[in-house]
Amino acid sequence: MRNLIIIAIVLFSLLFLYLGFYTSPKDYGEKEIFVVESGDGIFDISRKLEEKELVSCRYLFAAYVILRGERRDLKTGIYDMHSGMSISQVTEKLVAGKVKEDFITIVEGWNLNDIAKYLEEKG
Question: What residues are paired with 34 via a beta bridge?
Fold first, then answer.
C-alpha cells in the first residue's frame, strides 16, 4: 500500500511538471513587451515574467531553465511575448534571442539629416 502511494505521488508530480512546462495555461492573449536587461539573472527574469503574467509560477520557470542547463544562455533584449505561452516556449524564445524586430525604410534620396530625423521619430 505504501509503495502504491509513493508511485501515485511521483506520477502526480510528473504530470504537474509536464503541464507546467509544456502546456499553455490559456489562449494567446495580446502581445506583451518583455525586456531582459544586461545583468538580469534567472531569478530577476523569472520574477519579471511572473509580474507580467507571462508565466504562472516564477519558481517553476527558474527550475525548468536550471534543470535544462540554460541558465546562462538567456539573451538580453526586447521580446514580444504572449500571456498564453508555455514555460518551454518562453524559454526557447529567450535562449534563441528571438527579440522584437522593427523595420525601417530609408527612402532613396534622403540625406543624413533626413535619416537621423526618421530614426529619431522611430525611437
Answer: 79
Q: What is the pTM of this model?
A: 0.64
pLDDT single digits (tens) 30-60: 778 899 999 999 999 999 999 998 888 889 8
- In this predicted model, what pLDDT tens digit does every residue of 49-100 receive, in sequence order? 999 988 888 898 999 999 889 889 999 999 988 877 888 889 999 999 888 7
DSSP H or E run through 81:
strand 77-82
Q: How many CB atoms lie within 10 A of CB 42?
A: 17
User: Residue 79, SS3?
Assistant: strand
Which domains occur in the chain, in start order?
A: 2-122 (3.30.1490.480)
Report helix, strand or coil for 34.
Answer: strand
Compute the distance between CA of residue 73 and CA of residue 96 in angstroms, rounded to an integer: 8
Q: Which three cell numbers stand for residue 17?
A: 511538471
